[in-house]
Amino acid sequence: MQIxxxxxxxxxxxxxxxxxxxxVGFVPTMGAxxxxxxxxxxxxxxxxxxxxxxxFVNPTQFNNAHDLAVYPRTLESDAQLLETVNCDFIFxxxxxxxxxxxxxxxxxFGDLERVMEGEFRPGHFNxxxxxxxxxxxxxKPDRAYFGQKDLQQxxxxxxxxxxxxxxxxxxxxxxxxxxxxxxxxxxxxxxxEEQRNLAPNLYKTxxxxxxxLLAGESVQVVKxxxxxxxxDIQGIDxxxxxxxxxxxxxxxxxxxxxxxxxxxxxxxxxxRLIDNLIF
Length: 279
Ligand code: AMP
Description:
There is one protein chain. The protein is an alpha/beta fold. The chain is 42% helix and 19% strand. The chain has 12 helices and 9 strands. A 6-stranded parallel beta sheet has the order 1-4-3-2-5-6, with helices on both faces. A 3-stranded antiparallel beta sheet has the order 7-8-9. Strand 5, helix 9 and strand 6 form a beta-alpha-beta unit. The protein starts with a strand and ends with a strand. It binds adenosine monophosphate. Adenosine monophosphate is lined by residues 29-30, 36-37, 40, 146-147, 149-150, 173, 175-176, 183-186. The site of adenosine monophosphate has 16 residues, from helix 2 and strand 5.
């Protein structure tokens, strides 16, 4: 496995491999890797000749200075983990390499910007759009692997690929969870022991809400159930719980079989976690 920090170095290296007919699977990450990330890389390696993982804490997608400051940066241990899944190349640029000048370019993903992560993290998807577009241009993958954990990001990236005619296949992989149901996240490292013990309540409550919805309760009642259940837990501060149409992530007022997504965001102290459930 090789680590590249410069854009031109990895581009030149990949160019010669692609000329030999090799296919490239790409997993963009912000590092502090866990089993969820590694599963994406394993899938990329299984389906392509070469697996590339980028590690870049992208400043332009953070709308909260504290979140950016405390985001874990663990390149050395990330590299060790990536060796275990036979990753071929890590692309780990610094901010100057990626943004010698901050782009004035602005992406607006329309309705996707107005709900959930778009609504509560203004500018977030503009930053995601810019970095993902740049990374796609640099790596030129045949396939790109993203996690369902960031459901709205998947929708944004799908739109980006479509609107800008990127010649690649988008593969969405399932959410990896801890044994107690908590969705794996780099931000889990920032939880105190007490917060870590509370965090599985997000997934647990969504599952209870799912049972209620499938038993015929209305969307209104189910939403109130989630709000009440979580507001009764001291230490969890719910930001949103939304029922969305999986096709376009617009809010829905009734259950659509196979196309309903529960999406949730909550603060545990200063750490913000998101999760979702599709059914
Ligand atoms: P991140 O570095 O956390 O921004 O995530 C990099 C990629 O890994 C994104 O496509 C995420 O959706 C994906 N990812 C993060 N957490 C998980 C998880 N628990 N299961 C599966 N994929 C994940």
